[in-house]
């Protein structure tokens, strides 16, 4: 037998072996199989060498352990399905929960968490935190990279009206890149599905809400102010100065602010700022600025808690316990003392406004500005980046946020996040 015949014989033998194996296989080869979802108990026994993403089948936000039915309504398929990003060196988790429309939660061990919003349709006409927006056909996630040096999760969603989802208003695409240092980069953009209508656009990409674990109160989650006896619940901080705007709540529903309209406007014009939930456990933050896609002249930060604050909705101590994260136009259920549910609270946030314009009276001015179709099309072209993370103290947020934004346009490169801490 010559060399050529030997080679052919080897090829035929290998093909026969592969064919026999293929016939015996009950599905794809192992290296092509998607891992099955695991339980939260199984996840507790897993470790990672850096950062990893895992699918689970029994997650509940806010440590809620009861039934998801009959009220409030819940998502289709399995409402407890989630993708959880976990770290070797950090105790917080990053959770994409189906019941929360996959809007990601940066979650602490206690179950307290931060949500930083999505592209809500103009005028509250369409969003995700309603029964239709929770459905898998309107909101879904894909794990593109599972770790351990980097996790990449893509979230795609259609913002729909709470009464009818047959005509989605816009499609959002958000990529989240997580690194072993505990930080997450959010990259977000959207496309209008109703390009001739005001409701097909969004001017509100970043809004800070908190999640309170079931059975907890504001006084359990936040530190008490020694002088006034209330609790610092939300903070907007300038990353390039010592300016800070604090919002305090008490257990009787009163709101007080440390700062005024002029100070909040000055922070809006900064080269960078962070929205912070100052939990006792950790400070959870979302940092952004002009370098990450938010031009100072077209951004306005808003306090929605304090009655009379310029541009804000004046919610007061906004507490909602419809499952699991509240939203005013979505089957609203206000929190009541003794509620068995985890609940949401907030908020402070960022709105885009046309150059030289400001929202002073929320519904009147916001509604008018939404009519500017040239401005709406500008928002549709934006690619936005937000840095998410936890910190032990305020100086750490300053240091990380500035180090990131000082990269200039390179702050939008995901892998540059890996060296920030």
Number of domains: 1
Residue-averaged pLDDT? 89
Rg (C-alpha, Å): 23 Å
Strand content: 25-35%
Element order: H for helix, E for strand? HHEEEEEEEEEEHEEEHEEEEEHHEH
Proportion of helical residues = 10-25%
The side-by-side strand order for the widest beta sheet comes to: 6-7-8-9-19-15-14-11-12-13
- The assigned structural class equals alpha+beta
Number of H/I helices: 7
Low-confidence stretches: 6-25
What does this structure look like?
With 421 residues, this protein is α+β, with helices and mostly antiparallel strands. The chain has helices at 3-24, 40-44, 218-221, 261-268, 362-369, 373-381, 394-405; strands at residues 51-56, 82-87, 93-97, 105-107, 113-115, 139-146, 151-159, 170-178, 184-192, 206-212, 231-238, 244-249, 255-258, 273-278, 283-288, 299-303, 319-320, 343-352, 384-391. The longest helix is centred in the first third of the chain and has 22 residues, at 3-24. The model is unreliable at 6-25 (pLDDT under 50).
Task: Reconstruct the topology from this structure.
Elements: H1 3-24, H2 40-44, E1 51-56, E2 82-87, E3 93-97, E4 105-107, E5 113-115, E6 139-146, E7 151-159, E8 170-178, E9 184-192, E10 206-212, H3 218-221, E11 231-238, E12 244-249, E13 255-258, H4 261-268, E14 273-278, E15 283-288, E16 299-303, E17 319-320, E18 343-352, H5 362-369, H6 373-381, E19 384-391, H7 394-405
Antiparallel strand pairs: 1-2, 2-3, 3-4, 4-5, 5-10, 6-7, 7-8, 8-9, 9-19, 10-18, 11-12, 11-14, 12-13, 14-15, 15-19, 16-18, 17-18
């Amino acid at each position: 037998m010559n060399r050529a015949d030997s080679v052919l014989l080897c090829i035929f033998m290998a093909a026969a072996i592969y064919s026999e194996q293929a016939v015996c296989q009950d599905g794809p080869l192992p290296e092509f199989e998607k891992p099955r979802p695991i339980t939260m108990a199984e996840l507790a026994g897993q470790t990672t060498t850096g950062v990893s993403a895992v699918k689970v089948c029994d997650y509940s936000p806010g440590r809620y352990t009861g039934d998801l039915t009959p009220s409030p309504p819940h998502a289709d398929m399995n409402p407890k399905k989630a993708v959880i990003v976990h770290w070797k060196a950090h105790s917080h988790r990053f959770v994409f929960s189906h019941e929360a429309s996959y809007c990601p939660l940066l979650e602490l061990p206690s179950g307290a968490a931060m949500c930083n919003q999505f592209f809500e349709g103009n005028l509250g006409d369409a969003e995700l935190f309603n029964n239709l927006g929770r459905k898998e056909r309107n909101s879904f996630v894909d794990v593109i990279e599972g770790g351990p040096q980097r996790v990449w999760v893509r979230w795609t969603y259609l913002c729909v009206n709470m009464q009818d989802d047959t005509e989605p208003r816009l499609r959002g695409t958000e990529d989240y890149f997580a690194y072993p240092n505990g930080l997450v980069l959010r990259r977000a953009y959207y496309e209008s599905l109703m390009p001739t209508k005001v409701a097909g656009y969004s001017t509100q990409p970043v809004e800070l809400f908190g999640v309170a674990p079931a059975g907890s109160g504001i006084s359990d989650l936040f530190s008490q102010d020694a002088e006034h006896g209330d609790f610092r619940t939300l903070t907007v901080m300038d990353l390039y100065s010592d300016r800070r705007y604090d919002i305090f709540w008490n257990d009787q529903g009163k709101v007080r602010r440390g700062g005024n309209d002029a100070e909040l406007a000055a922070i809006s014009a900064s080269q960078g700022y962070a929205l912070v939930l100052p939990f006792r456990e950790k400070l959870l933050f979302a940092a952004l600025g002009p370098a990450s896609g938010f031009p100072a002249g077209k951004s306005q930060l808003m306090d929605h808690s304090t009655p009379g604050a310029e541009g804000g909705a004046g919610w007061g101590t906004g507490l909602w316990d419809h499952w699991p994260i509240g939203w005013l136009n979505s089957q609203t259920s206000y929190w009541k003392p003794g509620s068995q549910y985890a609940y949401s609270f907030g908020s402070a946030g960022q709105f885009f406004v046309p150059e030289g314009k400001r929202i002073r009276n929320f519904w009147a001015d916001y509604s008018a500005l939404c009519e500017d179709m040239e401005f709406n099309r500008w928002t549709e072209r934006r690619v936005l980046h937000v840095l998410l993370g936890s910190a032990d103290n305020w100086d750490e947020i300053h240091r990380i946020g500035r180090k990131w934004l000082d990269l200039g346009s390179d702050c939008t490169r995901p892998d540059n996040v890996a060296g920030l801490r």
